[in-house]
## 1
Amino acid sequence: MRLYYGIMATIFGALLLMLSYLFGWVDYNWVQYIAILFMVGGICGHIYVNYKKPVYDEEEAK
């Protein structure tokens, strides 16, 4: 499940942006800033977690 936290944060940020435009919250910059932070953080987190994950197990290599 830990592998998908970045994707979930990115989707949450995108949903927050869509909701802000739907409800007319475009005048409030803090909503867009939070959504962008979730999206950028989610992308970076997803890349970091997948980069740290080993491609194969050491036991399988033997």
Note: The helical segments are 5-22, 29-52, 58-61.
## 2
Amino acid sequence: MSDKNNNRMANYIALKTAVINGEEDLVKKLLVNRPMLDIEKSYLIELAQLGNNRAVITLLEQIPVKK
């Protein structure tokens, strides 16, 4: 795997963990200028819904989707 792919994967894992833990500030930091695939966005929103964290859900809903 290239360094770029490793970095992207590490960032996504960190984002997933922040969503699960309801860490709104970290989610904001990790989402800066980061469009993602619809399936990734949907998955993260589902995780946030499990934690019932409305602020994180709102942040995730605003993510642009890659085309």
Note: The CA atoms of residues 29 and 57 lie 15 Å apart.
